[in-house]
Amino acid sequence: MNAAAYRIDRKSAACHVGAVALALLFAAVSGRAHAELYKWTDAHGEVHYSDKLPVEAVNGATTQLNRQGVAVRKTEAARPIAQQPVAHTENEEQQLREAQRAKVLAARRDRALIESYASESEIDLAKSRAVATIDGQVKSAYAYVAQMSKRRQELEDKKPTYAPRPVPGSLVREIETIDAEVGRQNEFIAAREKEAASVAARYEADKQRFRELRAGASGSVATTDGRSAATSAVGITLTSAR
User: Fold this and answer.
1) Which residues on neighbouring strands pair with residue 65, listed in sequence order?
2) Which residues have CB under 8 Å from 148's CB, separation 6+?
3) Are residues 60 and 77 in contact, defined by beta-carbon separation less than 8 angstroms?
4) How large is the greatest C-alpha to C-alpha distance in the chain, in angstroms?
5) How many domains does the structure of the chain reveal?
6) DSSP SS3 for 75
């Protein structure tokens, strides 16, 4: 047997021994009422299987296996606690307070979003109702402008009938009043149409954020140290413990 073949045989033997050892470990814990097995990697990159997590593995990435060797829970490694920035001036302190306040408000909005809607279709329905309310106001304003424009035209048609006498002051003042009101109504219409576009965009942004929050929440649960743990079962291939 040459050296290359020997190395291959040794590797195959190591994998076989690792698989046998893992099978024996499964057999040892399977008789317990709440048998659990953990897969974890140490600081040197070595993969381990054990029925209890050692202290040095608590904050690392781990996989919990059931009696059949299927991963039922994956826990990410604990993230290091970020050092809080320190303000050196009054201006920096104010900026830090504002940043913290913005973070708190964002978290509140996210929580309110999840608690207010059960699906994206509910957000679409709420958007339709809000925009419809504004559209109703705009339509009423357009109808009012049309009514005043009609009245103004009637007054304009009366002007020639007074010739050669001067047009009565009351008629002139009424036309001026109509023009001023039409101007106000047009400003109102423009503002409400702008608001309708803003409301629609806000609901679309809420829907996008809702989708992100739901996607981030699916298949994971929060742990006491702030880590996320996947709960969906996924298959694994038993390999050598290196």
Assistant:
1) 37, 71
2) 178, 181, 182, 185
3) yes
4) 128
5) 3
6) strand
Q: Is 215 found in the same domain as 123? A: yes
Looking at the structure, do residues 23 and 68 belong to the same domain, yes or no?
yes
Query: Is this prediction's pTM over 0.70?
Result: no
Do residues 112 and 127 share a domain? no
Q: Do residues 47 and 98 both lie within one domain? A: no
DSSP letter (8 states) at residue 160: G
Residues 132, 74 within the same domain = no
CB atoms within 10 A of CB 210: 21
95: CB partners within 8 A, 6+ apart: 87
State the burial class of residue 39 (Cβ atoms within 10 Å of its Cβ: 0-12, 13-18, 19+): buried
Query: Where in the sequence is the domain holding 42, given as residue range(s)?
Result: 3-78+226-230
**Which residues 6+ apart lie within 8 Å of 39 measured at CB?**
47, 48, 49, 62, 63, 64, 65, 71, 236
User: Residue 126: in which H helix or E strand, if any?
Assistant: helix 120-158
Report pLDDT digits (tens) over 167-225: 999 999 999 999 999 999 999 999 999 999 999 999 999 999 999 998 876 544 333 34
